[in-house]
């Protein structure tokens, strides 16, 4: 290709350049000049006509989607002028989409959040405080225990998320395998030593190739229970609240468990799919595992499919000198600042949290319902499946122990959890010693959380 | 400059066809190689199909392809999709977006590629560098500014953010692909058409397009696959279940925090391969046979 | 589009003065005529380019330049970006060991997957080109794996093959070899993704197939007559005739390999695990941008990648003069 003559096309070129600059400026203005609606004090209090469109978003799959849709349908039937458009995705993609929507000031009016991710949103000041709506009576919280309500507060003490469901992690044990191995289940109030004793006793009687537990040294929720049992703090402000020695002790305990052959291999552990029904404990390939309490139902489902009649049971996590290690992981509903229909959003949240039809329809699909009246109705419901009742009963036991509240800093999921899992993997694969991995983890987590 | 591939001048015919028996053996050997390779390659897909026919809670029970209890339940359950919507809706949505994207990409990319491949114009080199440049930037970083832009245009919730850019040739891959194909066509054909009084439009429409059928077919096929499998775009822009595509429907079968339905996932994944496979089979003639009859010498 | 109508006129006035250009006419014409023809071609070209220019300006260039700006800022996806100069770039090469890990993972991946992919797709394209019965059926079947792409089902399928209890280990057990999970082991996880990439070779194969159909059979016949063996025919006919498409596939598979995301995201469930062994460049970029909300840092990473790739493609384009043969070169 040889150079062509520089003809009379200069003007055209200039026009092209000028045009592109104009479009660029427009794009820049569009990006930075996005407006948020100005809410009147009445709107901030959730007062006003309940009408028009709102968007509702949640994470989940299958049954949860059906139930959420059904609740929204009832609300629409109650309020003929209202249309609730629905958005759902699976947990991982859900939060990525919310972040993009947040950047575009386009978050749904009723957005489901989790206490573990709340900090990401309060730190960026994208949510409306719900306190004025509670004061005005638009949202009723009288049936929600204060300790549970507090899980929805931001660092400034204001309520940014109304907790609607409280989940917890539990020790799931394959009762049938434990009995065959002559290992009695740990007694209530058992501690970490009892837990390891149980594992080693079971390991002696378990068939070849079935370890006593999945390797869970890298599971943040298990570690939180350990920290709570010792009466230590997980976080102080935007930094780690526990000492390096504590984590060294914890990971050395897990390396001990692994060295004694009580856990499965790190490679098996690394390839385990995240969904409960595909987990090793569900296929009867390990005796026990730490899983969310609501995994009991799907895991039992897979076990049933194996056709060997195995039964699954759930126990609270081990306790420590300072008491129970279990904490609640609350999910709830929030209203973003960009919402242009606050009264309807507030009405929907109030309906979700308090209406018996909503409680019965949703049936604690994402953690036990926080409203005590609704919880009682479900426990009294003869049609509620047995496994679900056991899940809710364990929740009641955990709440009765007055579980401590962890305030998760912004970046908890993305920084803390991913770094924690990775650092323990480095230990288990022999890439780093425990103290080295703890050093790396502390540096990475503290740097990431401070940002 | 003549290409190094210019054929040597024909000389004497030394050998005739090889004996038929050896040809038969070679064919047989070829077929066996094919079939063995295919079996290995297709095992994962066959396993998926087999798993989709097992009861939901036995999906992972075997590495074999078939087990005793065969059931079509996963197809029925999966098709119902959970809730008021079912996969017929998702298939319809996916097809709509896919067809529009194909039309857009074909028109816009062919026009652009013709200019870059056959015409001389000012700023050709920098502009073509720009085409290649857009290929190099990971799309994740333009996701947010684009979302903001489409939100300002009030396009979020419609198919416009997924389809309109296709009519503007924003997919540099296809421009580059067609440029490479068109440049491989001998320009003597253009010159002949020019002698016949064709302008640029005439050459484009009467010469280049008919000869580029394989390139167009390839573009259509790849656009079909990309659009059909695209998840991120629909997830961001088509939030309402009414508007969901098949890939979004598939994603709802799995969730780490709730219940997953692997049986339905495999069943619907199998079904979702059908339209693309059908398109491939239909387009194959265009892709690989078309040129042979177009008289290109 | 209106300018298209002027195209033919421009073309005709150009053809009118004798003698008409002949295919072998080099050098093309005198300087005056060339500039007239050039100006008409200019107009026609920009008419053909109109949709692309609009799309470029509206949908592509704005977001691209915005991301370039973000590379010099801190931006948490809300509020205004905050200018930090070169801090993001400094962090990449000084205080972020994971960044360098992701670079080395990606380079390893590129070095394995690109040659394998090109060899497999070209080899199969030659096999599936002609001279065999049931070719259309074979082609469709070989293409099948490429259709499934980055579907969520792939992760489960890959565990069935390369997992602890997967078919590969079962097969190895038959010959007495015990092996742990290939996916769960940081030493082998990356290579299972290389295989996944090569498994979906169909796109490259289709491009090669289409290209092979453009090679006139006469060339092969002539070469055979000349006594050239299969290897000779491949080297002196197939490779040169296919070079534009080899160039295309090479460039694209390198770019794709550097930007590989979906397969790693699906197989490792977005974590880049185990132990960061599959932390691809764009996977880390995605984690920084969309999970840790460091969009400025992610943008900086993206532009460093662009620079690296631009360097590479630049070299490739320069080298193409020596080994790529276009039909339009005379």
Overview of the structural elements:
The complex is a heterotrimer of chains A (451), B (297) and C (330). Chain A has 451 residues and is α+β, with helices and mostly antiparallel strands. Chain A is built from 19 helices and ten strands. Helices cover 47% and strands 12% of the residues of chain A. In chain A, strands 1, 2, 3, 4, 7, 8, 9 and 10 form an eight-stranded mixed beta sheet that branches. In chain A, helix 3 links the parallel strand 1 (52-59) and strand 2. Chain A is globular and about 65 Å long. With 297 residues, chain B is an all-alpha fold. Chain B has two domains: 19-50; 91-293, MetI-like (MetI-like fold, Orthogonal Bundle), CATH 1.10.3720. Helices cover 67% and strands 0% of the residues of chain B. Chain B has helices at 20-52, 73-80, 87-118, 124-136, 140-152, 160-167, 172-183, 188-195, 200-211, 213-229, 232-237, 246-251, 262-293. In chain B, helix 3 runs antiparallel to helix 10. Helix content of chain C is 69%, strand content 1%. Chain C has 14 helices and two strands, in the order ααββαααααααααααα. In chain C, helix 9 (202-214) packs across helix 11 (230-258) and helix 13 packs antiparallel against helix 14. The two termini of chain C are 31 Å apart. In chain C, 50% of the residues are buried. Chain A: It comes from Streptomyces chisholmiae. Chain A: InterPro entries: Bact_solute-bd_prot1 (IPR050490), SBP (IPR006059). Chain A: This is ABC transporter substrate-binding protein. Chain A: Residues 1-30 form the signal peptide. Chain A: Pfam families: SBP_bac_8. Chain B: The chain crosses the membrane at residues 28-49, 90-115, 127-150, 162-182, 203-225, 261-283.
What are the main properties of this structure?
heterotrimer; B: 297 residues; mainly alpha; MetI-like fold; 2 domains; 13 helices; disordered N terminus; disordered C terminus; C: 330 residues; two-stranded antiparallel ribbon; 1% strand; flat; MetI-like_sf (chain B); MetI-like (chain B)
Provide a brief overview of the structure.
The complex is a heterotrimer of chains A (451), B (297) and C (330). Chain A is α+β, with helices and mostly antiparallel strands and 451 residues long.
């Amino acid at each position: 290709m040889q150079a062509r003559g520089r003809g009379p096309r200069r003007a055209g070129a200039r026009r092209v350049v000028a045009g592109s600059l104009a479009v660029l400026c427009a794009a820049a203005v569009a990006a930075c000049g996005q407006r948020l609606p100005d809410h009147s004090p009445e709107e901030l209090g959730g007062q006003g006509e309940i009408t028009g469109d709102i968007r509702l978003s949640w994470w989940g799959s299958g049954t949860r989607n059906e139930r959420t849709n059904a609740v929204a349908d009832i609300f629409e039937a109650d309020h003929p002028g209202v249309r609730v458009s629905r958005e759902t995705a699976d947990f991982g993609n859900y939060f990525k989409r919310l972040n993009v929507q947040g950047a575009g000031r386009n978050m749904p009016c009723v957005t489901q959040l989790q206490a573990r991710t709340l900090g990401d949103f309060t730190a960026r000041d994208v949510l409306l405080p719900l306190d004025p709506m509670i004061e005005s009576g638009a949202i009723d919280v009288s049936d929600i225990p204060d300790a549970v309500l507090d899980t929805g507060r931001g660092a400034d003490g204001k309520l940014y998320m109304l907790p609607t469901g409280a989940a917890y992690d539990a020790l799931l044990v394959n009762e049938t395998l434990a009995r065959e191995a002559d290992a009695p289940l740990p007694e209530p109030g058992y501690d970490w030593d009892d837990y390891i004793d149980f594992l080693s006793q079971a390991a002696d009687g378990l068939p070849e190739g079935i370890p006593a537990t999945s390797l869970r040294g890298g599971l943040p929720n298990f570690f939180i229970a350990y920290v709570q049992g010792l009466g230590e703090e997980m976080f102080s402000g935007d930094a780690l609240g526990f000492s390096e020695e504590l984590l060294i002790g914890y990971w050395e305990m897990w390396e001990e468990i692994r060295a004694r052959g009580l856990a499965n291999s790190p490679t098996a552990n690394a390839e385990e799919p995240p969904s409960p029904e595909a987990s090793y404990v569900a296929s009867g390939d390990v005796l026990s595992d730490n899983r969310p309490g609501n995994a009991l139902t799907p895991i039992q489902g897979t076990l049933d499919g194996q056709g060997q009649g195995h039964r699954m049971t759930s126990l609270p996590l081990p306790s420590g000198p300072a008491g129970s290690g279990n904490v609640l992981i609350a999910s709830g509903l929030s209203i973003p600042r960009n919402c242009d229909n606050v009264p309807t959003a507030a009405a929907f949240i109030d309906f979700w949290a308090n209406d018996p039809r909503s409680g019965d329809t949703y049936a604690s699909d994402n953690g036990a319902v926080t409203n005590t009246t609704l919880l009682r109705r479900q426990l009294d419901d003869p049609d509620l499946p047995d496994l679900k009742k056991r899940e809710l009963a364990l929740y009641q036991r955990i709440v009765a122990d007055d579980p401590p509240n962890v305030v998760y800093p912004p970046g908890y999921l993305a920084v803390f959890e991913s770094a924690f899992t990775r650092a323990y993997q480095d230990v288990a694969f022999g890439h780093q010693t425990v103290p080295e991995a703890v050093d790396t983890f502390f540096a990475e987590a503290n740097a990431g959380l401070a940002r | 400059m003549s290409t190094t591939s210019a054929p040597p001048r024909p000389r004497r015919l030394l050998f005739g066809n090889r004996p038929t028996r050896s040809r038969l053996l070679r064919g047989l050997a070829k077929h066996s190689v094919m079939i063995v390779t295919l079996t290995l390659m297709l095992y994962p897909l066959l396993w998926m199909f087999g798993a989709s026919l097992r009861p939901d809670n036995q999906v992972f029970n075997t590495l074999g392809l078939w087990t005793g209890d065969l059931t079509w339940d996963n197809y029925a359950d999966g098709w119902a999709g959970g809730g008021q919507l079912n996969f017929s809706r998702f298939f319809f949505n996916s097809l709509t977006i896919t067809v529009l994207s194909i039309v857009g990409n074909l028109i816009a990319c062919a026009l652009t590629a013709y200019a870059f491949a056959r015409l001389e114009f000012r700023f050709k080199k920098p502009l073509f560098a720009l085409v290649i440049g857009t290929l190099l930037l990971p799309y994740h970083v333009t996701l947010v500014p684009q979302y903001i832009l489409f939100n300002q245009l009030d396009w979020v919730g419609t198919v416009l953010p997924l389809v309109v850019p296709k009519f503007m040739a924003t997919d540099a891959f296809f421009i580059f692909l067609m440029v490479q194909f068109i440049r491989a066509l001998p320009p003597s054909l253009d010159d002949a058409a020019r002698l016949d009084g064709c302008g640029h439009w005439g050459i484009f429409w009467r010469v280049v397009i008919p000869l580029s059928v394989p390139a167009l077919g390839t573009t259509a096929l790849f656009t079909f696959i990309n659009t059909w499998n695209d998840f991120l775009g629909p997830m961001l822009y088509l939030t309402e279940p009414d508007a969901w595509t098949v890939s979004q429907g598939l994603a709802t079968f799995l969730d780490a925090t709730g219940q997953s339905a692997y049986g339905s996932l495999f069943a619907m994944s199998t079904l979702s391969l059908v339209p693309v496979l059908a398109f491939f089979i239909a387009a194959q003639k265009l892709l690989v046979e078309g040129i042979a009859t177009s008289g290109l010498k | 589009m209106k300018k298209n109508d002027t195209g033919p006129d421009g073309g005709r006035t150009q053809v009118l003065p004798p003698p008409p250009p002949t295919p072998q006419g080099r050098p093309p014409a005198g300087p005056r005529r060339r500039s007239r023809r050039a100006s008409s071609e200019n107009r026609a070209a920009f008419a053909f380019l109109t949709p692309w220019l609009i799309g470029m300006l509206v949908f592509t260039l704005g977001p691209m330049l915005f991301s370039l700006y973000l590379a010099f800022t801190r931006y948490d996806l809300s509020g205004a970006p905050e200018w930090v100069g070169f801090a993001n770039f400094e962090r990449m090469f000084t205080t972020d060991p994971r960044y360098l890990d992701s670079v080395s993972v990606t380079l390893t991946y590129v070095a394995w997957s690109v040659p394998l992919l090109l060899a497999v797709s070209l080899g199969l394209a030659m096999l599936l080109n002609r001279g065999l019965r049931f070719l259309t059926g074979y082609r469709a079947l070989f293409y099948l794996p490429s259709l499934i792409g980055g579907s969520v089902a792939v992760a489960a399928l890959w565990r069935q093959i390369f997992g602890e209890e997967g078919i590969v280990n079962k097969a190895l057990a038959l010959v007495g070899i015990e092996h742990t999970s290939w996916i769960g082991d940081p030493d082998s996880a990356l290579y299972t993704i290389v295989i996944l990439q090569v498994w979906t070779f169909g796109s490259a194969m289709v491009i090669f197939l289409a290209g092979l159909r453009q090679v006139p059979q006469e060339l092969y016949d002539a070469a055979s007559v000349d006594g050239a063996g299969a290897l000779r025919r491949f080297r002196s006919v197939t490779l040169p005739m296919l070079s534009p498409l080899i160039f295309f596939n090479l460039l694209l598979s390198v770019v794709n390999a550097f930007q590989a995301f979906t397969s790693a995201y699906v197989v490792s469930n977005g974590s880049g695990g185990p132990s960061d062994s599959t932390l691809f460049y764009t996977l880390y970029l995605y984690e920084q941008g969309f999970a840790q909300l460091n969009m400025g840092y992610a943008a900086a990473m993206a532009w460093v990648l662009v620079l690296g790739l631009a360097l590479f493609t630049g070299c490739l384009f320069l080298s193409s003069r020596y080994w790529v043969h276009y039909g339009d070169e005379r």
